[in-house]
Here is the input.
Amino acid sequence: MDNPYALNPYHSSKKEVTHISLFSSNLDLFKQLKEWFGVTSYRFSTVTSQEELIERGVLGEILLLDTRFQSPEGLPLIRRIKDAHPELPILACLSKEEQGLGHTVVALGADDFILDSELQDLLPRFIRRSLEKRNLRRDLSETRQLLNMELVRKGSQEENFKTVLREVLEPKTQNHRDVIKNFSRILSASQDLDQLIPLALMVLKDYFHVSRMGLFLDELGVGSFVLRGGVGIPDEQFEKVMSRHSVLVSSLANQGTILYRTGSNSVASGSQPLEVQRELDNLQCEVAVPLFVKGKLVGFLVCNNKVSGTPLTESDLTFLFSLCGQIAIAVENARLYSVLSVQKRYLDSVLTNVLSGVITVDNKEEIKTFNPKAEEILGIGANDALFQNFRILPSPFSDVLRETLIDGKSFHRHEVTLPNSDRPIGISTSQLKGNKGETLGCVIVFADLTDIQKQREWSRHQDHMKFVNKVAMRSSHELKNCLVSIRTFTQLLPDKYSDEQFRTDFYAIVNHEVDRLTVLVDNLNFFAQNLELYRVPIGLDRIFDDAIAMIPAEERENVAFTKEFDLEGITMELDTENMKKVFYNCFRNAVQAMDDGGQVDVRVKKENQKVFGSSKEKVDFIRIEFHDNGNGMPVEELERAFEPFFTTNNRGIGLGLTIVKKIVDAHLGSVQIDSEVGKGTTVTVIVPNKSNAELESAQEKKTLHSNESTPQNTNS
Here is the structure.
């Protein structure tokens, strides 16, 4: 069994038995502890009531407090005990249900807490740690008291103070080993430079019997050295600032050795010795000792001769140089601790206030970060999740974490649904890498998309209603135009029926308007229905020829059609009839853009692999370009090209490109237009070269991320 006093200098090495007082509501716990640990290393005694616990004079060396902390009198009991026995270490024993109170019991005065399920395995370790904390507190308290004495002492109290300080902080043998032990204990007692420096200087000043000692440290980002602590130094000296370029500082940095003002080791030679001595005179000190960290000067210590007037010996200076090395490391550690503390507080603030859940897992599969938003979304408390294997998380989360941590697969905006819930959750994951590229763990960031999805649905509904309103308004206008022409000629028919020319005009105009009405009704019916695709393998050559044949012969009389296919005989899985409409409308727009005829070129080529949808799957795309050498389109017309019923000529009703966009969107492709006035227009259609079955799952994923396939007032 480990001896909790093995590293404790306040107890004799012969001491083997630790006295533990137990206050517990569990009557069997006392018996269990005796069975587990016997009486060789620990002696247990029980306290039967709270009154005895508060009033009892000696409670042993540590109190194991096992009560129901969730009860109204549980937590206040810790404060009552601490008020009655301030020096008594308290080790709180918590049940699994109470482990969330761990930080609370420590804040109320307990030294530490341990779960009742860990008593048999971890109790010796927790006892040793609590007793070491108690002893360190005693050391720090005594040193602070002595420091306060130094600040208020007057006249004849000085020698008495030195005697007391020497008795406490210097072993009777006064050897280097004991001084280093006490000095190291003080340096490790605090990470606050304002506390650490005065304590360290007090020990050094008293050990070396000097009356004055000060420590200059470089102020990061300022480029100068400032007196951060001093003993026996006048107040005005604390305003002293040493430039990085001063002779004393540069000599310490370049030579890396102790500099002396007088004596056998005086810098009688070397770089500017008189300037060095002059600066030491200004500081009213005899010696300057450099502090280095990783080869960089971070500060220096100055002191005068001993109180007796004799200079420090070579042995003294060697030992002082060694102790300054410890100060340099302690200063660097304190600064790093300060930086890390600020970063931790900043990170904690970010994780607390961020609107997404954040979980990090180390390479041992243990959860290391679990922020409040993660608790809210998953319904799992941080205390129940931290330091547990990530497989305790719901299956969608544990699955993606496993793939990310073990297989190295990252997820981006991957959407899952929580078990027993219809809430959509968006997930992104990535591995955490070290400086050498090694895997340190992984992070998952996720958000509840319920509100976002509702907003999407509302936005889609609004867009759909806008589209319906626009179609209804423009359709009524087109219908009215057609009916006005028909009605006018119908009203004149009885009076002019005998006029053969009138009958000819009547037939042509009414037939033309009826054709326009038919096309309009067909297009409205197209938009009113859900577009269902029936993909079949088909060659683009066939679609090309069929689409041209659909254009009236008189319109394409002076137009030449050319095709350039990088891959001959390209076969794709497409909805044939709908893709014919795409080709037809692109050809028809190109023909109508050329008043006196011209040339329409079709270029088809295979795109490089692209990321498809939200699955990040690599897919081959086919790029189809329709280019005409017509008049081109100005920017203001180009921006409205996909609007329903927008047209710049009187030969169409302005639904061609709107139809093209809806069909291409349904194929999970994209369409864009490039045009320049006087140089023609290029319509580019890009569609994935995959079968219907292969695209089915990607179609579902994309639907969650994009609006319903309705025409928009932007290019794809």
